[in-house]
Predict the structure.
Amino acid sequence: MRSPTVLRCLSALGLATSLAACADDAPADDTTYNCEADDRDEPFAINLARTGPGGTTFTIVAADPALPIRGNNSWTIDVSRGGAPVPASDGEFLVTPFMPDHRHGTGIKAIWTPDPATPGRFTVSPINLWMPGVWELTFEETPTGGARDQVVFTFCITG
Ligand SMILES: [Cu+2]
């Protein structure tokens, strides 16, 4: 159910910078979400991996905090294709958080920082999940001159 605050937030979505203020304004009834009662999300786990239709695999190899929280998260992501690491020089990497129930994302863009010691490994931060509820996280990679590939993970933030 959408509270008046959610609706007010949605009406402000034209301004990306309003999202953070929107979250800060959330009253008590917006501070938690009953994830147990929602079966759309999946358990968050280290080494959770998903492969897109183009054969690109995204693996969550580390997370800080250890479980997704409301606010900013930093994850280590391995990207591979056909068993080979996809280096940062391969093209463009992107993660897009989205709340399907409210049709909004976040105004904060996560930066992909390559691990110089491990090809295909990136620190992706901040992954901004600013509101309790179900979040779809689309990870995508577009090789230079090639076709975009993507996967979606679905997690729930209790509050
Ligand atoms: Cu929302």
